[in-house]
Amino acid sequence: MSDSNTPGLSGVPHVPEVPQVPDVPHVPEVPQVPDFPNTSAAPPVAPAYASATPPPGYGAGPAATPPPPGYGAGPDAPPPYGSPPPASGAPYAPYPGRPATKQPILSILALVAGIIGILGSPVVFIPIAGGIFGLFIPAAAVVLGFLGRTKEPRAKGFWLTGIITGAIGVALALLSIVIWAVVFANIPNTGYSY
């Protein structure tokens, strides 16, 4: 085997030259601070001011204005935490801002009853009793949905879903009753005679 780097020598590896480290430049010394003689042994004293009042805050003019009242403070502010309740018959003052809205309870109940009626639909396939029990919750969803429609028109998504899912649940329960009635009507009457 011959080395292409050394054509005259065979079998002896070529040793590369070791690079030389460059000289590091000389860093100058840090100059020393001269010592100044201490003329007094006592620490310096702050100058005395004409009055002992603190200086005014930033941007304060000759007469500082009082800070604005806290959030909710005003003539209609609620009583602070821990204060005694108002006299009997005197209601609490309402919080300022937008008035409290009434929750659409009937519509939410219609939605929940309709969903339970759909999820509980396998119970309607128990002979006769399942169909009868399967009618109650979906029927309640339909009734609550229509009540929510008249009393809570803004909660349309809730009561409409309750009506639709309740109607599907009622249809499944009625279908179950009809199917089981047909099945039992077609069973041959054998074995029992009077």
How would you sum up this structure, described in words?
The longest helix is centred in the last third of the chain and has 30 residues, at 156-185. This protein has 194 residues and is mainly alpha-helical. α1 runs antiparallel to α2 (129-151) and α1 runs parallel beside α3 (156-185). It has a domain at 105-185. It has helices at residues 105-119, 129-151, 156-185. The chain contains three helices and no strands.
How many strands, what sense, and barrel or not for the largest sheet? none
Number of strands: 0
What portion of the residues fall into strands of 2 or more residues? under 5%
How far do the termini sit from each other? Answer: 117 Å
pLDDT averaged residue by residue: 77
Given the structure, what is the number of helices? 3
The class by helix and strand makeup works out as mainly alpha
The SSE order reads HHH
Question: Which word captures the global form?
Answer: flat
Give a nutshell description of this structure.
By secondary structure, the chain is an all-alpha fold.
How would you summarize the topology of this molecule?
Elements: H1 105-119, H2 129-151, H3 156-185
Helix pairs in contact: 1-2, 1-3, 2-3
Keyword list:
194 residues, mainly alpha
